[in-house]
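dumping this here before i forget
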Amino acid sequence: MPELARLIVLVIDWLALPVGVFAFVNAAVQRADAYTAADRMTKPAWLGITGGGTAALLLFSFHNIGMMFWIAGLVAVLVYIVDVRPKLNEVQRGQRW
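structure:
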C-alpha cells in the first residue's frame, strides 16, 4: 500500500475512536425514561451497543482481517448519533415552535 494511502487509513482508523467514545458517554448521561419516551430501546441496551461498538473500534483495525468488526462498531455508534440522539434531545427539550 502506498504511504499516502496508509496514512489516510490510519487517520480514519483513529478518528473513529473519539466518535465511539462520544456516543457511549452521551448514551450514559441521558435520562433512562427518555429512551422509552422516544420509542427507542432501553438505556442499558444502547449503553451495550455503543460500548460494544467503541470496543470494536478500539480492538480491531480498518485495514486488516478485523475490518468487518470495525465497520460494525462504527455503524453501531453512528446509528446512535444519527437516529437515537436527536430523538432523545427532542423528547427532553419538548416541542419547539
